[in-house]
Amino acid sequence: MGDDKATRAVDAARDYYNSADVDGFYTSVWGGEDIHTGIYEHPDEPVARATRRTDARMAGRVADLLGPGRTIIDLGSGYGGAARHLARTFGCHVLALNISDVQNRRHRELNARNGLDTLIDVVDGSFDDIPASDGKFDVVWSQEALVHSSDRAHMLSEAVRVLAPGGALVLTDVMAADDTHEDTLRPVCERLHVTNLATPGFVCEQLAGLGLGQVHFDDLSENLLPHYARLSDEVQRSGEGLTGVIGEEYLDRLRTNLPLWVHACESGLLAWGIFHGRQ
Q: What is the C-alpha to C-alpha distance for residues 35 and 241, in angstroms, rounded to an integer?
């Protein structure tokens, strides 16, 4: 992996998530706990409720490996909603790896407020170079983090490297549909400071090539449209209520960019779901 390219990608992701405007968007509009795609029971459901359902669905895929004495690593842990769900529900220990100082500070505060700081270690660092020994974790968990890697094959190899024998990997990512040309989505991706997205076929092929058995992709792409429609509607509807929380320039970008995501969803250009496989 090219060091310069990797460094630029890490810096871009850190700058993006440390931005006050982006923090305000994820905290005020997305819910400030889980900043990934939700699983919706109906289109008008609050984003925060739908994203918590994603946490529960993912945990169900690896439930036999969760519990007291089990160790989980959450790659790109954000504000820690999933880590708290795992620690609170199953009593397992979570190492939460994330590069954003802003998110990590809020993550630690929320852990302490919920009495979970003894079960969750928040570590500043990059998932492209995981600071852990081989075979350390029962479960490797990641939600919408792969998108920010400059070398996604390497990130997946790192994830499998730290997976214990008999352990499981479970991840989600916002992706291009397998038949979508990457240039089509460049305007959509611009808000995330990335130029392209992975595809389900790529992730499945990489995981199988890394020796994971029973690699599955639960295709839940139908949730993308209600998710981005909810986000877009919330930004448009909130209007002046977001003034002071999100700068006007970034609000204008959101008002322009989020409808592009909605259109891409309507056009079948995007994919999303849960990947899971066993060591």
A: 20
Instruction: Give residue-wise pLDDT tens across range 52-93.
Output: 999 999 999 999 999 999 999 999 999 999 999 999 999 999
First to last CA, the chain: 24
The pTM score is 0.94
The CA distance from 207 to 44, in Å, is 35
Residue 53, Cβ density class (10 Å: 0-12 exposed, 13-18 middle, ≥19 buried): middle
